[in-house]
Amino acid sequence: MSNLTENTFSNTVSYNVKLLIVQVLVGILLYVNGLMIFTFLKKEVFWVETRYILFAQTLFVDSTNMLLTDLTMVGSFHQYPVHILPCCIFCTLMSLLSICTPVTLAAMCLERYVAICMPLRHSSISTPKNTFIGLLVIWTVSFVIPLFVLTVFLVYASPFGLGVYVVCSLEVMLRVKWLADTRAASLQILFIILFGLVVSTYIKIMLAARSASSDKKSSTKKSLKTVILHGIQLFLCMLQLLMPYIEMPLWNVDVVVFLNVKYSNFVLFMISPRCLSPLIYGLRDKKFCQALKHYAFCGISLGDKNNKIGHIKTIPLEM
What is the predicted pLDDT for the residue at 236? Predict the structure, then answer.
């Protein structure tokens, strides 16, 4: 009895420490992302460039998804029961946002391809109208799989099953084996398509880099690095989508192992890829970095007057 009490106390302390670490990491990333979204909204020069619009969408989607997933994980750790219908809507929204991120990353790679390989057509392709159409396509593609899973779950669930309270998790909606298999296969197909798109984009930009003049090689090499970083993000984000299939077998076997695996997956495949976006556009992009420093230091001038944010020209910046 004493050993059981000690083990329970030890597990509780361990859970609380892990949750505290996660809250600190999530809080830092939400602050950084929030500052970047604020910077984007405050400077109209970013509103007319497709790359920054897609970047702002990524920040918004990642921040919202991270917050919702964090709430779900906290509920799982404390075994807090909620009604199954709000849980399904919650999980559908998280699934939508999780898919939206890699699709947006692929679109950002395409934008870099157009900028480097078709510079003369870039301004005519990356128009506000085409950007809006691209955003509609991204959200439509992202919504297909979550809507299918939600519809099938509601059709197969009995009226009595829709009145229960559960510990909210995506696994609740994937108890029908063929539905789980179909979702997994669909995500794998989506990953292959997106990854193939990123690889082909990288190859075409690399070929353009070899034939580029010396004054353009710098921007081309930066674009290659950007595509590589987006590829890493895409890979980690798609792995995160497949994590429920690793966690599901553990759910009914050992709750402690399930929670530990869920915690590790959250840190590795939810938080870590979201750290790359601030790196790519917050530090490597000179124009955005300059604007970000301006607002991070509450508008205090950090350099010459000619370098102030108000004097940024609306020209494409090398990346």
Answer: 86
